[in-house]
């Protein structure tokens, strides 16, 4: 008998999607099986991470023995965790490609500063080294000993002031906490000497916790970013420090800088914050939100910055303070805040919420209605400056109210300007106008006023009406003058009917009356006003002759 032929089984058929899916799995498996040549795990470098001290002397008899493993070590009392992390940084920086140092969960004890070597800006590879932990709460780098002034937990090589002080840097540090030697809790607590992170160009700090340093972040040069960081219990959260070269263009996004013992941000007189963006940041729970440190400034304190949806919450001594400093070209959009005496430094004045020497061409838009809220203990005014020119308060309802209620029995005025006060315009809900200094004789709220050079005085028969004083004050005070919209205006004793055309009253040109006359109309009464009533609401129709 012949052998019976067996039926042929057709080979399995794979569709294109199945083939591509299988290929992707094989490639992913191969990728997982191959270690990333650009990543170094700290535990593989000999770090312990149990929170306790492990000096190199535990493992090595002599410094020479230690340097065979850690060539950068200089003493046997240096911590093994520091030696492992610094060694990983140096190895990646010298690899020609850079890479990432991964720091597993743990509490790593360090007693020297970590240094990121400088980069050559013309090198296309950049040789960047990044440091990434496992989460802000799970990976902690701790310095229990104060390294002293001028030292940092982590810095760029160019921060040592040596011949490479202009070195270029680019790095990302993410998902971990740097814990300094002395976390502060109350205003006035003595700060440590050492700082936290000393940044240069193009640092990205992403989801970092930084606590217990003189300054959590020390800013130098340009284009660095702080993203979703919490920087608290330091003396200063972020410091634009002395002797640095900050070209601006920094980004702080969703940064929590509340709860530092002096200020959320401080700026040395030699430095300034330029062309930077602060978006959704939280300042406060400290004496100052943004502080210009004492001394004659060498440059503008705040210049052409954007602060968007930022909160100056529970500041003790003020939101922005720099009595000798310039603040110009900035936009504060949707910002708000309050004062809270609990965070006040004793012996320091609470002159106002914003106190600067020069306030020029700044925009306050939306949210800043809270200028008038929570202002206990202000001594002078909400905004204090020697010169204020060309500022716009686009949401000035509360500022006008503070000006209206200011004085011995009603809080403080809106603005106090010692010298030049020009073109400072405000927009309220129902009216708009300009903050002007009061001229000779003073004014009362609701009176018609005329321009007297760069001042406002009670209206007389000799000049056209400029507007209506929304607050009263003696000569020299700054008050809001409404020039458009609906406002309450002082009137004579006679009754006025809604819709009446109103003019300056004969013999009392600072008040209005209904009827015909040679003077130009002021506006139209929008309500009835009974005989003997002090004011009538008027839709202003001001013209100049």
UniProtKB/TrEMBL annotation:
Residues 42-55 have a biased composition (Basic and acidic residues). InterPro entries: Pectin_lyas_fold (IPR012334), Pectin_lyase_fold/virulence (IPR011050), Phage_VT1-Sakai_H0018 (IPR011231). It comes from the Bacteria. Coiled coil: none annotated. Residues 33-55 are annotated as: Disordered. This is DUF2190 family protein.
């Amino acid at each position: 008998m012949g052998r019976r032929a067996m039926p042929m089984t057709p080979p399995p058929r794979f569709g294109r999607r199945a083939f591509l899916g299988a290929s992707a799995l094989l490639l992913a498996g191969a990728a997982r099986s191959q270690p990333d040549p650009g990543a170094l795990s700290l535990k593989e470098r000999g770090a312990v991470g149990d929170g306790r001290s492990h000096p190199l002397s535990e493992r090595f008899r002599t410094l020479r023995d230690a340097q065979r493993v850690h060539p950068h070590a200089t003493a046997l009392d240096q911590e093994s965790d520091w030696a492992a992390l610094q060694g990983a940084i140096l190895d990646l920086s010298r690899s020609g490609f850079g890479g990432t140092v991964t720091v597993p969960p743990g509490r790593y004890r360090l007693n020297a500063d970590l240094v990121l070597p400088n980069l050559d800006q013309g090198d296309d590879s950049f040789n960047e080294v990044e440091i990434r932990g496992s989460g802000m709460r799970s990976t902690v780098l701790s310095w229990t000993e104060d390294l002293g002034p001028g030292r940092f937990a982590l810095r760029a090589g160019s921060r040592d002031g040596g011949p490479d002080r202009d070195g270029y840097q680019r790095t990302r540090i993410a998902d971990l906490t740097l814990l300094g030697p002395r976390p502060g809790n109350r205003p006035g607590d003595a700060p440590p000497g050492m700082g936290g992170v000393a940044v240069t160009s193009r640092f990205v700090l992403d989801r970092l916790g930084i606590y217990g340093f003189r300054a959590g972040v020390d800013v130098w040069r340009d284009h660095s970013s702080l993203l979703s960081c919490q920087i608290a219990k330091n003396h200063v959260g972020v410091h634009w420090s002395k002797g640095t070269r900050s070209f601006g263009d920094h980004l702080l996004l969703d940064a929590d800088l509340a709860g530092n013992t002096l200020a959320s941000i401080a700026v040395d007189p030699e430095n300034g914050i330029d062309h930077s963006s602060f978006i959704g940041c939280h300042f406060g729970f400290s004496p100052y939100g943004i502080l210009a440190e004492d001394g004659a400034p060498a440059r503008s304190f705040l210049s052409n910055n954007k602060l968007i949806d930022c909160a100056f919450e529970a500041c003790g001594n003020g939101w922005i303070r720099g009595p000798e400093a310039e603040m110009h070209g900035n936009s504060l959009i949707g910002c708000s805040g309050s004062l809270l005496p609990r965070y006040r430094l004793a012996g320091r004045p609470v002159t106002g919420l914003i106190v600067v020497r020069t306030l020029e061409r700044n925009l306050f838009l939306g949210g800043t209605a809270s200028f008038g809220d929570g202002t206990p203990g202000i001594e002078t005014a909400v905004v204090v400056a020697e010169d204020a020119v060309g500022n716009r308060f686009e949401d000035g309802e509360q500022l006008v109210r503070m000006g209206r209620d200011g004085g011995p029995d009603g809080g403080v005025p809106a603005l106090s300007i010692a010298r030049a006060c020009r073109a400072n315009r405000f927009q309220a809900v129902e009216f708009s106008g300009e903050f002007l200094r009061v001229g000779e004789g003073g004014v009362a709220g609701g009176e018609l006023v005329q321009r007297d050079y760069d001042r406002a005085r009670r209206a007389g028969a000799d000049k056209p009406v400029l507007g209506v004083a929304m607050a009263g004050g003696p000569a020299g005070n700054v008050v809001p003058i409404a020039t458009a919209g609906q406002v309450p205006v002082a009137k004579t004793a006679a009754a006025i009917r809604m819709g009446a055309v109103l003019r300056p009253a004969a013999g009392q040109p600072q008040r209005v009356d209904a009827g015909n006359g040679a003077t130009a109309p002021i506006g139209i009464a929008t309500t009835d006003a009974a005989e003997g009533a002090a004011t009538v609401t008027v839709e202003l129709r001001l013209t100049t002759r």
